[in-house]
Amino acid sequence: MIDKKKNKIEVEKILKKFNPERKELIHILHKVQAEEGFISPEAISEISKYLSISEGEVYGVLTFYNAFTLEPKGKHTITICMGTACHVRGAPAVLDEFSRLLDISPGQTTENKNFTLETVNCVGACALGPIVITDGDYHGHATARDAKKILHHLKEEKDKNKDNEKS
Amino acid sequence: MKKADPKKLEELRTRIIDSRDENKTCITICGGTGCHAYGCEKIAQNFKDEIKKQNLEKKIDIRVTGCHGFCERGPIVVMQPDGIFYQRVKNEDIKEIISKTALNKEVIPRLLYKDPQTDEIIEKEKEVAFYKKQKRIIFGRNGFIDPTNIEDYIALDGYKAISQALFEMEPKEIISEVKKSGLRGRGGGGFLTGKKWEICSRQDSPEKYVICNADEGDPGAYMDRSLLEGNPHSIIEGMIMGAYAIGAHEGYIYVRLEYPLAVKNITLALEKAREYGFLGKSILSSDFDFDIHVFKGAGAFVSGEETSLMASIEGRRAFPSQRPPYPAEKGLWGKPTNINNVETWANIPLIIEKGADWYNHIGTETSKGTKIFSLVGKINNTGLVEVPMGMTLREIIYDIGGGIKDGKKFKAVQTGGPSGGCIPADMLDQPIDFDTLTRAGSIMGSGGMIVMDEDTCMVDVARYFLKFTQEESCGKCVPCRIGTRKMVDILTRITEGRGEKEDIKRLKELAETVKNGSLCGLGQTAPNPVLTTLRYFMDEYKAHIEQKSCPALSCKNLIVYYIDPDKCVGCLLCKKNCPVDAISGERKEVHVIDQDLCIKCGACLDVCPSKVSAVSKHTGKEKQKILEEHNKKKTKK
């Protein structure tokens, strides 16, 4: 569960680092997204008050850009590059397989909040295409067959972390 | 440098060069994003650790440099000063490289590049076919510079051009030099850079801005990123001169969100430039003040359009606005603004330092200088290539790019990203410049070159690009917002085998409307991928619509996978790899695909051993036959 009160305090802290000027809006949204993982309704309200613009305006800007999300992401983010080079090398099949295995569409998060599936329009590592990026790690020349392995690996890592926490 | 001035800069340059022993072995490791994806960071760290462990710091230098361009062969390690070129280097190779090559000048043949066409083993970087035909005037210094070390740039005559410009040239002279060079904007439009500067310089306003457009959004194009990451000071230097020429004191670099390393390197470079007196108040003790901010984009393709980009800097949605007035007259916050692309800015120091006459001898009549292309897709040598304008596509794709992957047949090359078009095989001998590409129905754009082979379906490519622009359309203009969606619907229906005869006419009509009724470049050029594929690959559209077949065997709905019973040896490989258990048959028995379960992922085709090659794809009538046979067997059971 998201602690609304805590979220509000955190956002207030972030806002203090910026001048209350309209041109700071995107910088502020970047910072909130990076630190909170998403932009909550509370954050929208705080930002709007701070910059003296309407909540609708803040909402309008943040939903215009792909960088900002209204919901927290899953523990792991799987990003499939859908750039042209990856596309002609078979990225759609890779995306379909991840989508099928996780039972979610691109842009969604699994119900257990473990995985978020995303696409990106080119990461510029075209020599390695198709590319899958999991939590910042690159998997080059990916095929649909790799999807299962990659997911398995992520799950195992998670279990390992859990064990470490226990001990 | 405290209170820097041109004299002190030259003294510093001499000091840096003198302090460096050019004969000392230096292991340079490519640190571009391509090599990062291969894990070059770890390799660089291991090199450093090993050199420290063996106490060799006095004998060997290590430098993580900007992108070398030959991404296909990463991680790349070049041994300087000899230029020995090692490719696909692994952690296990580190000790051997140090003991043999770095200490004893002994070359390790297994790490050298072997030319796939001649089987010749090549020792030096400059002799590799990929680099031989290139003219790397902008990009060439990347491989010698650690982008985090400003002194590397200074040692290679960096910031010489600004001391020349600020003290020996009037703003007017700079503009006339840039005009004379014939440099045209590298971001897509191809407008004369000098002319743009001149218009902006004539505006009477105490407040003006310069902007570097680094919102490189075209999928498959990453040359701007490599320049920002690999040689950020060349862009800063270019911007200082532009600002001086037009009379601006503040600048912005708008970087695409997906380029974290570029943001990091350019931010650091700006700090260093300030520290050394190249930015800030009284640059090099002149009376000129100028500083630059970095603006991190937020993931909207349309913000690469200049008016949208400025709206974004102002903290608003990246909506384009009506031109004229052009940014040169009314730009950021309503003030005169000069906006150029990364590669354009990187050209400026060269033009000022070496002169317009040197520069305008490179290239063609109407397109001067070089252009960096990102050569990607179904090509053997994926990478960034810099060639003089006017080189033919054939030279770029075959001589530099090493031809098509897996010996397949070339079908088309897509230039200019989602605003560009597909150029067919019979135009391979066209010299490439701004005008020939426009005549072919495409554009130069920012320089993406995506090579497609016989397995690429051109209708699907058109659908891909339209889907891209439709998703990225900001929605301001109705023809773009709704027109692109309708076009995607039609193209999707065609690739799924539900195309109608009238669809081609509808596509052409919609293309016209979207082109004419959109405010910005995104909408005006969005139909190009459709129009060019209709122009050059009509037969593929017809096959999809009339025969419900995909000649490239690529559209999922129009193909089936089939195991040839005469060829199958019953090895179980496909069965084991099928993610949906659609394949039946025991060991040494013929395997059969259940067409009702098959999701057409292609795993069976991938794993079937090449000497058996029992799995194949079929479309059109053959597909029908296979399905009928399958259904017959099912009803029998």
Give a description of the structure.
The complex is a heterodimer of chains A (167) and B (637). With 167 residues, chain A is α+β, with helices and mostly antiparallel strands. Helices cover 50% and strands 11% of the residues of chain A. Chain B is of the alpha/beta class and 637 residues long. In chain B, strand 17 and strand 18 (592-593) form a beta hairpin. Chain B is globular and about 90 Å long. The mean pLDDT of chain B is 95. Classes of the chains: A alpha+beta (167), B alpha/beta (637).
Question: How many strands, what sense, and barrel or not for the largest sheet of chain B?
Answer: 5 strands, mixed
Oligomer: heterodimer
The class by helix and strand makeup of chain B works out as alpha/beta
Count, helices of chain A: 7
Q: How would you summarize the topology of this molecule?
A:
The complex is a heterodimer of chains A (167) and B (637).
Chain A: H1 4-15, H2 25-36, H3 41-51, H4 55-64, E1 76-81, H5 84-88, H6 91-102, E2 115-120, E3 132-134, E4 137-139, H7 146-166
Parallel strand pairs in A: 1-2
Antiparallel strand pairs in A: 1-3, 3-4
Helix pairs in contact in A: 1-2, 1-3, 3-4
Chain B: H1 6-19, E1 25-30, H2 33-38, H3 40-53, E2 60-65, E3 77-80, E4 84-86, H4 94-104, E5 113-114, E6 121-122, H5 129-132, H6 150-155, H7 160-168, H8 171-181, H9 193-202, E7 209-214, H10 223-230, H11 232-246, E8 250-255, H12 260-275, E9 291-296, H13 306-313, E10 337-341, H14 342-354, H15 356-359, E11 370-377, E12 383-388, H16 393-400, E13 410-415, E14 421-424, H17 434-439, E15 448-453, H18 458-472, H19 478-495, H20 503-517, H21 521-525, H22 528-536, H23 538-546, E16 559-563, H24 573-577, E17 583-584, E18 592-593, H25 603-607, E19 615-619, H26 620-636
Parallel strand pairs in B: 1-2, 7-8, 7-10, 8-9, 11-15
Antiparallel strand pairs in B: 1-3, 3-4, 5-6, 11-12, 13-14, 13-15, 16-19, 17-18
Helix pairs in contact in B: 7-11, 7-14, 8-9, 8-11, 10-11, 10-12, 11-14, 18-19, 19-20, 20-22
